């Protein structure tokens, strides 16, 4: 019986090393700064593509229509704008 108790105590001792450390509170973390001009274009979602004319969106910029192949490279500074079949702005994101 003492052997079982000793093994149990030893097992608990080793398992205590597996205890996860508490994580720091995330309340003070700030959101990462936007790296592209998505905030400039996002209010135009649902508007015709012509709403982009004269807006002065900084490069790099990628405007994609329906059925257009898109590379999967990620460039954080690039503003991506997706246009739907009815020629309206559908989605905007950085990358």
Automatic annotation (TrEMBL):
InterPro entries: Prot_inh_I78. The keyword Signal applies. Coiled coil: none annotated. Residues 1-19 form the signal peptide. The keyword DNA damage does not apply. It comes from the Bacteria. Keywords: Signal. This is Peptidase inhibitor I78 family protein. It comes from Celeribacter persicus.
